[in-house]
Amino acid sequence: MQIKTFTCNLFSLQTYGNKRRAWQILKMNTVYPDNLFQNTFFPQPGITVRYLKIPAIVDFIFSTAPDPNYKTMANRSFGATDFKIAFLSGEELATVNGFKAQKKQIEWMCGRFSLKTLANEILSPGVPLADIQVSYQKKGAPFLNAYPDTPISLSHSGDYTAVSLGQNRQRCRHEICHSNHQAP
Q1: Taking the model in full, what pTM does it have?
Q2: Is residue 54 packed enough to be buried (19+ CB in 10 Å), middle (13-18) or exposed (0-12)?
Q3: I want to staple 104 with a disulfide (CB 3.0 to 4.6 A). Which of 5, 60, 70, 99 is the partner?
């Protein structure tokens, strides 16, 4: 399997695939405000990868920002009124409230938000984000309940979360690899 690496000024994102293609990079600020650091690219036809900066997602989704030291704090209980945007189902809120650390809660919610917005734009326009459900196979791979044959991947590292979606059953996988560059 061939490993492909996309490099921007902040980090590298490796995707795994069989075909060599030129990277197509798009800044997708048509749906979200400019302050939401969002980039989407297509490493090969049928595969879409999006990466976002977690603090930008936090600023966008929370009604009241979490404590700036959330990375070192114990979990907190989240409810539907804690969010500007309804994107988690009741079951997902129960899952996130079961995590022991706020860092894990925030990363998980940011990954869900990123995946659901990508799936909404590509597969389910007009469907409320909270109605887009993610489950896990026995071996732990995530899948979209409404599109079980559409491969997806989620990851996070440091201040970034990345998601990918493969159309036409194209397998997708990615990892975030940090570089030494600093954010502008």
Answers
A1: 0.77
A2: buried
A3: 99
